[in-house]
Amino acid sequence: MTLLTSDAKGVYVISVTPFADSGAIDFDSLDRVVDFYFDKGADGLTILGMMGEAQKLTQAESRAVAERVIKRASGKPVVVGVSAPGLAAIGELGRAVMDMGAAGCMVTTPGSLRTDPQIHTYFAQVAHTLGADVPIVLQDFPLSTGIHISDEVLGRIIDDIPQVVMLKHEDWPGLAKITRLRKAEADGRRRISILCGNGGVFLPEEMARGADGAMTGFGYPEMLADVVRLSSVGDMDRAQDIFDAHLPLVRYEQQPGAGLAVRKYVLAKRGAITSAALRAPGASLAPEATAEIERLLARQEKRLKELN
């Protein structure tokens, strides 16, 4: 079992959960999409996140998905989202997936938190519930949770809770937060890994600010891998060119309520999953949206050929 550490780098793709048109989990497509992500350059996977429709799964289904993905990954790191309203559910699922061989657990802030001490106490409780040997990814996603974690509170969490080894950075605007975290580390604070989300829409800038990679999803995960790899060796112009070629589709995926349907459409078109279905309740694409995506894909292909 490969455990997540504060030195983790690269791309941990947020995996979709494939469903049949009936709404049942499509485990054959789950196997296929895991292979697809790694074939396209992923260093690890993150499952049961918000874009994995985790909130629509039963506890038994969550365990079944985790077991299948961890087995299919064949030793490559898999982070499992275990966020839940209560600590008991977090502990139950977290311990189960760690026993299966997960690399760590991702947890975000519940909407009930109101003060800085509450935020700090919550993650201390999560760490105690999961256990001292479980690496934690702290998902900082105020656009979804409504909870803003200040630099000061985040610093105290890093100082006081060693199980927190990674920040999934999704603050927006949040580039300055990355800069301040890296400065604090240069001044002596413990290092943590920073992987960035938000669909990769700021990925080149985040890498330039000191991020270690991406933890997000996209219909073309090879773009994420290329941008992270090129940025890591200082070839920012080439990284930006590749990013810019995909940017119209990245932008289109950012539509609230429709982005996952777009992503699943592209993944199905590429053969990674059989059906683009979302489990109810979930949006479906109108014919006009499908036509727009096809136009974006054609233009993207043309631009990538020009770059090559």
UniProtKB/TrEMBL annotation:
> Mind telling me which SUPFAM superfamilies this protein's record contains?
Aldolase
Q: Where is the signal peptide?
A: none
Instruction: Tell me the protein's name.
Output: Dihydrodipicolinate synthetase
According to the UniProt entry, its GO molecular function terms are:
4-hydroxy-tetrahydrodipicolinate synthase activity
According to its UniProt entry, this protein's organism is Puniceibacterium antarcticum
* Family, as annotated: Belongs to the DapA family.
Kindly list the positions annotated as binding pyruvate: 215
- What keyword terms does UniProt attach to this protein? Lyase
A GO cellular component entry from the record: cytosol
The organism's taxonomy opens as: Bacteria, Pseudomonadati, Pseudomonadota, Alphaproteobacteria, Rhodobacterales
